[in-house]
Amino acid sequence: MSSLHLSGSLSPHIGNLTFLEDINIQNNNFQGTIPLEIDRLFCLQYLLFANNSFQGTIPTNLTHFPRILVIELKGNNLEGNIPPELGTLSNLYQLSLSRNHFSGSIPPSLGNLSALQILDLAHNNLHGTIPIELGHLSNLHVFQLSSKNLSGMVPDQLYSISTIQIFSIGGNLPNSIGNLSSTLTSVRLDQNYISGNIPQEITELVGLSYITIDTNMLTGSIPDSIGKLTNLQEFYLFTNNISGEIPYSIGNITGLTSLILEENMLEGSIPVSLGNCSNLQGLHLAQNRLTGGIPGEVIGLSSLYLGFIVRQNYLTGPLPSQAGKLENLVSLDISENKLSGEIPSALGNCLMLNSLHMDDNFFEGTIPSELKNLKAIQFMDFSRNNLSGNIPLFLGQLNLLVDLNLSFNNFEGEVPNGGVFKNITSFSVLGNRNLCGGVKELQLPACPTERVKKRSTRRVILVAIDIGVSIIFLVVCVCAVLYRLRKSKQPSVVSTEENQNPKLSYAELHQSTNGFSLDNLIGNGRYGSVYKGILNFGEQIVAVKVLNLQESGADKSFLAECEALRNLRQGHHLMLKLRF
């Protein structure tokens, strides 16, 4: 009858079922008290009431079950004291009372349960000391006990039980923990107000595959010999006051799958030896005091998929391109460090990435176009860096992206309007001064229209052409003047003002330019065209400019050019008269 979503109370008539050997109603929603009539079930061996809502106390007449093997009452609302009479159940091998509201002290009589293999009293309101008598439970495999109100030391006798495989307890960790069996596979000491150092002797428990000592008050460092635990798969030490460096020997634990050391005071660099942990799935080193760079050997572990979390440290240098090997990684958080360089385009290979946090660093350059491949991304934060360029349009095409932060960078240009950019609460572009457009709630200036852009470009081109033509015209004029100057220095029989400054008719100009032929065209400007002319049967080359008087400003341009020639004449002491 387990896990059937049953509710209501347990009828007292259950006492009439005297032949029952097994009652399994766990994982339902039964309420009320455990009926006293249950003491009639003399044949009962398994009492499985776990994970319901039973209230009241444990009936003391449970001791009437001479054949009982298992009592499972965890996960209810039971209260009161743990009955000392339970110590008379000589055949009992499992007693699970965790996650209730039991108070009082632990009965020393429980030490009489010589057949007991599992004792779980965790997460209650028990107080007092741990009875020395529990050290007599020589067959114990699982021992779980945690309460903030327990006092005193853990009896050394408990650490001498060689059969224990799962050990979870509060208090200090004595050196005698190393006396536990080498077959011990799990040490669970989380949330137990444990203080002091991690004893070096814990590394003698070479059979350990699981250590969780998180959320305590531990100090000191991680033992250098931690690498001896070659069977370790999961190591949780977060939220303590651990200092010192991460031991290099940790790289010897090649079967490690989870290493969670965040929220401590660890220093030094991330050991390169972690690159040997080829089965590592989650690496959390956030909120420490780590320095140095991110080793490519570590961030290149293709086995990582749960998370690579190193935020709030003092890491420097670039993000290695080996990050592109994290094809299955779900979360990458390198925020609040001192990392620099460009965002590696290889990140576009992290196709399963759901969360990318690179904020509060010194990254520069543009957002790589390869990030358009991150189709699974939901959270992306590039804020407080030195990134520049336009905001890529593809960010608005990532359909699952719901939170984007680009604030306090040097982005410029138009803010996209699609996807995540439609909802002002889903993205931020604060602190980028040269942005325009976007949704109206941004209150950014409008971007220049395409027509304005084309007109501006055309104006620039025309001005450039006009300047170019003017320069060509002046160069030709200078060449002509220099040519005349050179000719004037040669012996001449006749040197008259008429020969130096000939008057030319329109017909002569027309003939010299071959009828203003395109073959003679030197260039076009805003105010006219310049043609090459040949006078005196090829002896004299001139430039002829034909003004477009219909263009506004042509007359001013003509006068300016005349003034330039007049200044040129004075600069070379030429007696050249201009006739127009």
Helices and strands in order:
Blueprint: E1 7-9, E2 22-24, E3 29-31, E4 46-48, E5 70-72, E6 79-80, E7 94-96, E8 101-102, E9 118-120, E10 142-144, H1 156-159, E11 166-168, E12 186-188, E13 195-196, E14 210-212, E15 217-218, E16 234-236, E17 258-260, E18 282-284, E19 291-292, H2 296-299, E20 307-309, E21 314-317, E22 331-333, E23 338-342, E24 355-357, E25 362-365, E26 379-381, E27 386-390, E28 403-405, E29 410-415, E30 427-428, E31 434-437, H3 450-488, H4 497-500, H5 506-512, E32 521-524, E33 528-535, E34 540-547, H6 554-571
Parallel strand pairs: 1-3, 2-4, 4-5, 5-7, 6-8, 7-9, 9-10, 10-11, 11-12, 12-14, 13-15, 14-16, 16-17, 17-18, 18-20, 19-21, 20-22, 21-23, 22-24, 23-25, 24-26, 25-27, 26-28, 27-29, 28-30, 29-31
Antiparallel strand pairs: 32-33, 33-34
Helix pairs in contact: 3-6
In CATH's first tier, which class of the domain at 1-152 applies? Alpha Beta
Please, how many helices?
6
Percentage of helical residues? 10-25%
Strand count, sense and barrel status of the largest sheet are: 18 strands, parallel
Shape: elongated
Q: Low-confidence parts, pLDDT < 50 over ≥5 residues?
A: 451-457, 489-499, 571-580
Rg measurement, Å:
44 Å
- Find the CATH topology of the domain at 1-152: Leucine-rich repeat, LRR (right-handed beta-alpha superhelix)
Mean pLDDT: 84
Class from helix and strand fractions: alpha/beta
Q: What fraction of residues sit in β-strands?
A: 15-25%
Total number of beta strands: 34
Label the CATH architecture of the domain at 1-152. Alpha-Beta Horseshoe
Give the termini separation: 117 Å
Spell out the CATH superfamily of the domain at 1-152: Ribonuclease Inhibitor
